[in-house]
Amino acid sequence: MGIRNSSFVKEFKEFINKGSVMDLAIGMVIGAAFSKIVSSLVADIIMPVVGLIGGGIDFTDLVITIPNFFGGDTAAHIYIGVFLQNVVDFLIVALTLFIVIRGLNRMKERAAKKLGKEEEKKEEKEDKKDADTDKILKDILKELKKQNKR
Q: What is the distance between the alpha carbons of residues 66 and 71, in angstroms, rounded to a whole number?
């Protein structure tokens, strides 16, 4: 039994060919492109304005340097400004996803309500149809009883 015929390979092929995996891949590509746009928005537009409001601070240059206490020439640099930019990036992406998912959920709710109303109308029509059928059957039964009495 070769590797080509194994059930694992077959299951993997089925998994890869499912639409949800392709949707996920497309979502990842779009997400990566969106992330670049958000990063540019934060780094090139938002943070310079925040820095200007904060007294001309350039957040990309905001670094804490820790000297090497063990006698070496190197020091450790903690890039707080870059971290803050990444936090703002995250918040914008999270807010955007929240808005999109919220909108999708509302659309689903509206569709469910509409479907529910359509189902109610359908049930009402069926109930009316059943009532009409019952009336017709009762009328037929009355006529049959009249005919049997003669």
A: 13
* Integer Cα distance of 104 and 98 in angstroms: 10
Task: Count up the domains in the chain and report the number.
Answer: 1
**Domain ranges, residue 132:** 3-149
Cα(134)–Cα(127) distance, rounded to whole angstroms?
10
**40-86, pLDDT tens digit by residue?**
888 888 888 887 887 877 777 788 999 888 877 888 899 998 898 88
User: Long-range contacts of range 82-85, CB-CB < 8 Å, 24 or more positions apart?
Assistant: 84/47, 84/59, 85/39, 85/42, 85/43, 85/47, 85/59, 85/60
CATH number for position 133: 1.10.1200.120
* Whole-model pTM over 0.70: no
- 120-144 per-position pLDDT tens digit: 777 877 777 777 788 888 888 888 8
